[in-house]
Amino acid sequence: MSEQEKPKIEPGVCIPWEEKRKEFSQITGDEELVKRVWEEVDALGYLYIWQCLLSF
Questions:
Q1: What are the pLDDT digits (tens) for 21-50?
Q2: Would you call 21 helix, strand, or coil by DSSP?
Q3: How many CA atoms lie within 13 A of 23 on its CB side?
Q4: Which of 10, 20, 30, 50 is deepest in the core (most CB within 10 A)?
Q5: Interatomic CA distance for residues 18 and 33, integer angstroms
């Protein structure tokens, strides 16, 4: 993948919602709720990675 093809990932994000959304064929229910929960869980993963890096 060249530099032009790589998606821009914002700080504090491991896997952007737009990329994760492609894994689901259909979301039955409130997609905004699923997006919000995913972004919160993803942010915790990002925080965990940084904590591990800074601790050692």
A1: 999 999 999 999 999 999 999 999 999 999
A2: helix
A3: 9
A4: 20
A5: 14
